[in-house]
Write a structure and sequence with these properties.
22% strand; 11 helices; elongated; single chain; binds pyridoxal-5'-phosphate
Length: 384
């Protein structure tokens, strides 16, 4: 994939022990509810093949991905059971449950069954397709059912819920293992939609057969126990993102990204830097060119806005972000500290994912899922 740490332009270090510690913190916080892990989009860009087994070893038994392909990959990563269990219920107790949040079901039924995945049924069409598959295999099939309580994105809208509630026959092929809904504004605790969605969710639950409930993402967990239900679904908080933008981040940082300095030059007052000449030096400046660019997921909106660190000293990103390169004003630092071959911290203990997201005009989710494929990746093992 790349030439290894010696030659890499960027080194991405992912702390699996921190991910596990974050999961444990949330599991403790929500007990007796169960804490699942959302590992869609390759575990938010951090590598599902490393992240999911670490969480499984720590005791996590329920995982959420988006698509059928992600579910198949995750089942392979976590290992069997691929064979049908001898007991007619779900699976052996040590087997992970894998839910597909937003998969297209029609045509994928055999793949979903063969890999013992559970779809989240988001519409009457999904319910009917899954029931038809149940008819073909001659047993009720486990699945989650999602209700739209105010996000207008996925899940049964109120009129489809009414259809299901009024005709229990409609669910005859489905064994609901969780009733799910998703909060639109959980990261804004004072937003009235939170309480309104909770009311709609509870009302809907009273009209459906009893099942476990799952409502909260990372931010939802911090809205309090009323939002926890039986199964919470954090993603970003596991990966170190702040679950509550208005409060100090209780999660351990997970990601460190160091960019290698290729060249350092002194420029005279009035000299411009990079494409479009959007930075012009105010005096004599020392400029360090670093081998990371937007092709590596360093968003172009960080031009003239980002901040790196050399030790404890912040260094401003100046000029545009190029495909493979960025430039920093390192004039504040002694020459010996910014030599070609050494590294500038782009993410890490000083430069949080949330701070970079703020500078880039986006959210931590986009920073993580954009992380590129050219980095040399190092995984810090979890200790169990
Ligand atoms: C992505 C996702 C989550 C996880 O959300 P975070 O904000 O990352 O904790 C939970 N539920 C659903 C339905 C999602 O799509």
């Amino acid at each position: 994939m790349n030439g290894g740490a010696l030659a890499a332009g960027g080194v991405l270090t992912i702390d699996l022990a921190a991910i596990v510690a974050n999961w444990r913190l949330l599991q403790t916080r929500v007990a007796p509810a169960e804490c699942a892990a959302v590992v869609k989009a390759d575990a938010y860009g951090l590598g599902v093949a490393q992240v999911a087994p670490a969480l499984y070893r720590a005791g996590c038994r329920t995982f959420f991905v988006a698509t059928v392909d992600e579910g198949i990959t995750l089942r392979r990563v976590l290992g069997p059971p691929l064979a049908a269990p001898t007991h007619p219920t779900d699976a052996a107790t040590d087997a992970a449950t894998i839910y597909l949040l937003s998969s297209w079901i029609v045509g994928s039924e055999d793949d979903i069954l063969a890999h013992r995945l559970q779809p989240v049924l988001n519409s009457l069409g999904d319910i009917d397709a899954w029931s038809a598959a149940a008819g073909r295999v001659g047993r009720r099939l486990p699945a989650a059912i999602q209700l739209d309580t105010g996000m207008s994105r996925l899940g049964l809208p109120p009129e489809e819920l009414a259809t299901v509630a009024d005709s229990s026959d409609r669910l005859r092929g489905v064994r609901p293992t969780a009733i799910v809904s998703h909060l639109a504004c959980a990261d804004e605790p004072a937003h009235p939609l939170n309480a309104s969605q909770l009311i709609h969710f509870r009302e809907a639950l009273s009209r459906l057969p009893p099942a476990r409930t799952s409502f909260a993402n990372s931010a939802g967990i911090f809205l309090g126990p009323a939002y926890h239900g039986h199964l919470v679904r954090p993603g970003i908080a596991l990966y170190g993102g702040a679950p509550r933008p208005d409060q100090p981040n209780p999660m351990r940082p997970v990601v460190r990204l160091d960019g290698r300095i290729l060249q350092v030059r002194e420029i005279d007052e009035g000299t411009t830097v990079g494409y479009g000449a959007i930075h012009q030096s105010a005096g004599r400046e020392r400029i360090a060119t670093v081998a990371v660019g937007y092709a590596d997921g360093l968003l172009r909106s960080l031009g003239n806005r980002g901040t790196g660190y050399v030790g404890d000293t912040p260094v401003p990103l100046v000029g545009r972000v190029s495909m493979d390169l960025i430039t920093f004003n390192v004039s504040e630092l002694p020459e010996a500290q910014v030599r070609p071959g050494t590294f500038i911290e782009l993410l890490g203990p000083h430069a949080s994912v949330d701070a970079m997201a703020h500078d880039a005009g986006t959210i931590a989710y986009e920073i993580l899922t954009a992380l590129g494929r050219r980095y040399h990746r190092i995984y810090i093992a979890s200790d169990q």
